[in-house]
Amino acid sequence: MHPTRKAVATAAALLAVAAVAGCDPDSDTGASKAGSTKAGCPSVVAKAKRAVTTAEDVDAPWSGPTTGPKAVRGKTIVFIAHTLANPGPAGVAQGVEEAAKVVGWRVRTINGKGTTAGVKDAFEQAFAMKPDGIVISGFGPEIATKELRRANAAGIPVIGWHATAAPGPSEDPKLFSNITTRVEDVARISADWIIAGSNGHAGVVVFTDTTSSFPKHKSELIKKELATCSGVKLLAYENVPIPEANRRSVKEVSSLLKRFGDQWTHSVAINDLYFRHAAPALRAAGKDGAGAPYNIGAGDGDPSAFERVNGKQFQAATVPEPLSEQGWQIVDEFNRAFAGEPASGYVAPVHITTAANSGGALSWESEGYRQAYRKIWDR
Fold first, then answer.
1. What sign results for the dihedral spanned by CA atoms 314, 319, 321, 323?
2. Would you call the peptide bond into 173 cis, given omega within 30 degrees of 0 as the criterion?
3. In 10 A of CB 211, how many CB atoms?
4. Which of 121, 248, 255, 277 is the most exposed place for a label (fewest CB within 10 A)?
């Protein structure tokens, strides 16, 4: 049983005790303490709280494909990551490598090092290998349009991970499929968590990366949902490119603390890694790791994010992608492409992880996906 499932009985018992004691069962997260007890937008808060409760449910049985072609043997896949410093692409790459071993494929992972030149060089290395399939991970196809057209012309199926805003097949750019949770759902639930936890009274900083279409689109959707509550104020919209987060986050956070002080109650970032780098600045300012600003990562839910959430160290929640599971899905989608079948169309449901429902786990994924794919592949 996944650790998150073990937490269900404990959570139910705590809810019962809280009800008897007249306490708020969510008060241990600290998020609700930042806002007034009277909602600043009652109907929006009520709707947000219902959505958050659903997203925090840890009972997530496999809802993906159960049928498909048996595994095709002897294929070579190249996985191009925008940067392996981003735990999202790195986690998916590990899932691809794990699944590829099951079906007997060869995988090469190439680091684009966070630059357009690096991605283009990675494509050149990929073409030299004459691969059967290419994964583009963590970057928009617009930074390598020529290389993508070359792959299309050569008949090499390309699958994206967070490459375009929408999941599933794409004609422009041409992708056999793009693997991601629905960005609209991730953005909405991240903002709803802030609205619900603050009772509609929050001062919010949004951290984004506008150099790529996917994260920019996600952060714009977050802003749109936050704006549905009149009591939520957007304090700052900070553009810090992911490859620069390591060196810039401490300075940016220190500046924000000076500008806004206690007005800054919540943060949401398009990727968890912003809070890895923000933590030292918040700690140096004497902030409590379990206190404001309450931070939620709108992806990707890497192990370090779970550690911060579990330990209540400057990150209260994450909206994790099931990274390993999505790596297995990528292999399954390639297998469908090689067999001449359409993409599965599966999209993983959105989820929120907090210290209260993680069960101490360091990842989130659906129950039974490995067994389901093995059964499909006859492996």
1. positive
2. yes
3. 18
4. 255
* pLDDT tens-digit map of 81-123: 999 988 889 999 999 999 999 999 999 999 999 999 999 999 9
- What digits encode the pLDDT tens for the residues 207-261? 999 987 778 999 999 999 999 999 999 999 999 998 888 889 888 999 999 999 9
Whether the CB-CB separation of 178 and 333 falls below 8 Å is answered with no
CA distances (Å), origin 304, targets 12, 31, 187, 308: 27, 21, 21, 6
Size of the chain, expressed as the number of residues it contains: 379
Both tokens of 336, joined, read 């469908």
First to last CA, the chain: 22
Instruction: Give the global pTM.
Output: 0.79
User: CB count, 10 Å around CB of 285?
Assistant: 12
The answer to whether the bond into 132 is cis (omega within 30° of 0) is no
